[in-house]
Amino acid sequence: MSLSAIYILDSKGKVLISRNYRGDVEMNIIERFMQLLLEQEDESNLNPIIQHGEVAFIYVKHTNVYLVAVTKVNTNATLVLSFLYKIIKVFCEYFNELEEESIRDNFVIIYELLDEFMDFGYPQTTDCKILQEYITQEGHQINQTKLPPAVTNAVSWRAENIKYRKNEVFLDVIESVNILVSASGNVLRSEIVGAIKMRVYLSGMPELRLGLNDKILFENIGRGKNKAVELEDVKFHQCVRLSRFENDRTISFIPPDGDFELMSYRLNTQVKPLFWIEPVIERFSHSRVEYMVKAKSQFKKRSTANNVEIIIPVPSDADGAKFKTSNGYCKYVPEKNCVVWNLKSFPGGKEYLMRAHFNLPSVQAEETEGKPPIQVKFEIPYFTTSGIQVRYLKIIEKSGYQALPWVRYITQNGDYQIRTA
Question: What does the record list as coiled-coil region(s) (predicted)?
């Protein structure tokens, strides 16, 4: 990836800040960008890459500013977009929010950061933790001390000489379930989106090796497919040795210090709904409406969901709410035209019932509004829908200290919807 220049523009296309890295383009070339952008016909489907002669503009819009990268070579556009989003993330870490005002207030430190992000158009350091070690913000002053070793090391995401009295690693496997169920009970769409997040408190420069019940690994070592998971769209943190993973499926890495996301994955698979919701709605002479909602948990009895919310849409002109539940409590939220049924604890294999009664002055609104789906929010600790398992987490460090690894599994709702019509 090689870039000629980076520009930050306001919403009208005026240049706020620019940095010329290679000197191979005229800096006023950006004047053509906004004109070309406005010429795109379909505003709902804007192309993030605009070609103009031998120059390509690759851009991202964030709040009320544009970040535009300019290149003259045939570069990987996806890498450039990823780099621009990384820049946005760093600016947000420094200024809380990236917008026109924060750019005008911090242009000195932004120039410093732009110089660190790239060298002669090639990406260098974009790790905010490392940058904050030597580019600090105190009012409008920049305190630049001696460069930390991490900047010049091969391991740019971790500083040297880190010491902890107690060496620990916390690993969370978090899966979100996206599901859409029709009113007849058919699963129309289902997906599992997962992430492995870590919190590392380890001294020195340790190497970690993580083993999962990965289907391809199990096939390679002749263990068959039992209890193995086929991961799709796997994305790793930059610390993971990709060549090692491609060779033998071992996830080997020197971790950053503190919190970071090690990897994310997706499974586009048929998921049995963890919660089955059956609503029965009765209307009486245009004067009232009654709901009977049955909620059933369809996961193993040894697991328990916490902080379950079942959000049931009701007509906008409903009033006089009355509720009766076999478990939990209900509240009417008129500003959102819904009832929220809260269950602090919902064990697996259980079934609960809720009845709601509303006065309904007219039936006109109900007929014209359409019927939004029921939504479910939940969190199930010590449980994964995909069946992914951490088989081992080895910690290797030259001093040979003992470290404690802690592993947690959590399944939570993503976009979890059940249609009522």
Answer: none
Fold of 5-151: Beta-Lactamase (3.30.450)
Q: Which fold has domain 168-271+385-418?
A: Immunoglobulin-like (2.60.40)
Q: Kindly report, residue by residue over 68-96, the tens digit of the pLDDT.
A: 999 988 888 888 999 999 999 988 888 88
Task: Locate the domains of the chain by residue range.
Answer: 5-151, 168-271+385-418, 275-381
Instruction: Please tell me the pTM assigned to this model.
Output: 0.70
Domain at 275-381, CATH class: mainly beta
Question: Are residues 257 and 178 in contact, defined by beta-carbon separation less than 8 angstroms?
Answer: no
How is the beta sheet containing 275-284 ordered, strand by strand? 275-284, 288-297, 351-359, 319-325
Question: What DSSP letter does each residue of 62-93 carry, written as one string?
Answer: ETTEEEEEEESS---HHHHHHHHHHHHHHHHH
User: Under a CB-based contact definition with an 8 Å cutoff, are residues 395 and 407 in contact?
Assistant: no
Q: Could you tell me the two tokens for 19?
A: 């940095």
Say if residues 48 and 81 touch (Cβ distance below 8 Å).
yes
